[in-house]
Amino acid sequence: MSLKFAFNLKSNDFEKLKYIIVGDNPGKNEYEQNKFFIGQSGTQLRNHFKNNGLTENFEEECLIFNKTFLSTDKTNGLNNIKEKISSKNFDRILYFSAYEIANYSNNLNLPILIFGKSKLEKGKIFYPFWNKLSELCDSNKIFVFSHPSNSNFTKEWNKHRATQKNKNNRELLNYIGQLNTQKLNNSNG
């Protein structure tokens, strides 16, 4: 098994940034282009942010990372990599990503929007990332959401929009993210 790595080579004007966006791991398109969240899920996320006035220009206003720079066609492929390189080495890669994201968030005072919550719980593949990021950043800056794949984020958004009609779109984004972060922290105890 050969390991594939992908790093986001897009440069940003730090003065224009509003959010740090975090996905799971780079897939085939991201690996080939060294640019994150560019597949179908990324397109859905970009469209959602634009259509709901959360950004004027997603590319300029969002710094995009993943929980790991290890690239697989499907996120579940990471389990095979973890087995091959050892849990200890795999976790070191997750820690590296957490440190990098925390550094940007803390130095630029940016919120971290994590898309993909199901694998952040204790015993799941991204828990070491979550645990380290939670140590390094103020929990009020970390917001967790469903992954945009299969329209999961849109479904989550619409569900909460129906009950939180008094909130504007930015307030709704914060509300959903805080709710999920709190649930995750409670389940990880």
Describe this structure in words.
The protein has eight helices and four strands, in the order βαααβααβαβαα. A four-stranded parallel β-sheet has the order 2-1-3-4. Helices cover 50% and strands 10% of the residues. It has one domain (14-188): Uracil-DNA Glycosylase, subunit E (3-Layer(aba) Sandwich), CATH 3.40.470. It has 189 residues and is an alpha/beta fold. The longest helix has 22 residues, at 87-108. Helix 5 (87-108) packs parallel to helix 6. The model has no long low-confidence stretch (mean pLDDT 94).
From the structure above, extract its key features.
10% strand, Uracil-DNA Glycosylase, subunit E, 189 residues, alpha/beta
Strand content: 5-15%
What would the average pLDDT be, to the nearest integer?
94
Radius of gyration from CA coordinates: 16 Å
What is the tally of beta strands?
A: 4
Protein name: Uracil-DNA glycosylase-like domain-containing protein
Pfam family, one: UDG
InterPro entries: Uracil-DNA_glycosylase-like, Uracil-DNA_glycosylase-like_sf
Organism: Haloflavibacter putidus
How do the helices and strands line up, and which of them pair or pack?
Elements: E1 19-23, H1 28-33, H2 40-51, H3 58-61, E2 62-66, H4 78-85, H5 87-108, E3 112-115, H6 127-136, E4 142-145, H7 152-163, H8 169-188
Parallel strand pairs: 1-2, 1-3, 3-4
